[in-house]
Records
---
Amino acid sequence: MDTTPGLVCAHHHLYSSLARGMPAPPGTATTFQGILEQIWWRLDTALDLDMIEWSAKLAALEALEAGTTGIVDHHESPNAIEGSLSVVARACAEVGVRVLTAYGVTDRHGLDGARRGLEENRRFISEGGNGLVGIHASFTCSRETLTAAANLADELGVGVHIHVCEGPEDHEAPIKLKGLTSDQWLLAHCVHLPTDHELKGTILHNPMSNLNNAVGYANPVRFANPVALGTDGIGGNVIESFRLAYVMQRSVDVTSSPETAWSWLETGWDLMPEAKEDLVTWSYQPMDPWHLAFTSGVRPIRVEVDGRVVLEDGVPTMVDPVEIRAKASEQAARLHARL
Ligand SMILES: [Zn+2]
């Protein structure tokens, strides 16, 4: 058995874990915008605080069971904005994992929706919550809203977590965000971002989500920015993201080494340095990129977060995983009935 620090999932949506099994949408989405309209924007408007709580607990549990002790979350619930980030933070604390959350501001629900989203970020962070300022994406925001979010982040001394050029619909992001970004920003996806863009920040690569949405391959090795690995809401298993990131890179360049994708996984510790103090003992050794790229089913046996054992013999110690799965399933049924 081998030991590593706690892993960091650099882009997650804890609110999305109740989506699996949802009823088929009214129409078949044929574009990225269509996927947002048919699936995610119907789901997020139906969320209430109870659903958010159990969705976050389920996602936090699955992260812990994959050795991920730090989650960079991007949250949206347009009909349950106020208090939502605290619900997410409490859910993760109960399970025993760390979270750095943000409310994704958007103009899709009018100026009042954007204002309330900004206010939720301000409230959570100024009350001491571990947060960033969230923006959904530049293509759903006016320049005024983007500037307000960037100014709020400056005022609070934090970065901004935003989706950038995930699909072709967001190709104007480099223009709309010109002059606003800093090294503290987190830029999720960047699939359609030109290589010679001028945006500052860490690029968050989510290979499984990009394949699932048929948006293309980001090929993040082409960027000068730091790159970190996320799941975009499809579980919390960063080793799975690493393995996929490696073979995706290999598919366009047969000389690629798994060490590159592993270095992206390690960038997670720059975003949540506290996770580097956590200890994960694994079912496999050595935890080396050349081994892990070709080894499936590696799982944590013991996890220690902030000096406290939160998983022992492969089982969470702070919560009952059977209860979390049962309650999440009840909330999923409520959510699906609203769609
Ligand atoms: Zn995302």
---
Amino acid sequence: MAEPVIAAEPSAGVEALARLVAGRGVVVLSGAGLSTESGIPDYRGETGSRRRGSPMTYQEFTGSEAARRRYWARSHAGWRTIDRAEPNAGHRAVERLRRSGHVSAVITQNVDGLHRAAGTRDAVELHGGLDRVVCLTCRQLSSRAELDRRLTELNGEFADPGAHRQADGDAVLPDAAVEGFRVAPCARCGGVLKPDVVFFGESVPKPRVERCFDLVAAGQVLLVLGSSLTVMSGLRFVRRAARDGTPVAIVNQGPTRGDELATTRLGLPLGPALSELADLVGDRPWR
Ligand SMILES: [Zn+2]
């Protein structure tokens, strides 16, 4: 593997990236760092505040009514942040790159729906999306907006938790607020509702993983944006690309677990860097 290009000067780095990605059928793999400029904290990143406590696991959520009450109370408070967030320059640049044919596919580890909001409708949401809810009994999918109306009816609207917001729409709340919280059951069957996101301790559905491996295999470059690749669910695509000899470019502020596999490595703020990249490679359809 070649020595990674680590640019001392931002524009030189973006120019090197432009030469790598122009017209190449790039597969984007994005993470929480791409959404920080939309006001959603990246709790694993260097710039984000540290997460308070560990995230709830699938086993805790499904195993205890008290855990589910805690989850939904905190999530009800944190939902405002996610619901009001707007795509930033980084999401918009990715969409420009997709429309002009440089990017062939977008895979995101984010559950905030911001790629879709930027127009990238077919972005694969590896870990699901917070804007949907699934019933664990009858499997019916419903919208989070509808559940939010029901939770607000039952509990009122929670105050914005400010600094204690978390990247996955979770928020830190006082115990008393959690204890009095009323959870809404599935409107169809009365079953347990879970956000349609992959929890820690839960696997990404196999067909979704296979689809992502196929996209990575078909791409000519894998471009990682704003992910420290801490969890295997994203890192495995970087490993596969590197094994197949597909160049891997990483733009992330701070080190990542994929750094030694990268051919190009840039530590730049994503919004400005991706806007410059989209300008350099051009908006004309690339054929
Ligand atoms: Zn149900």
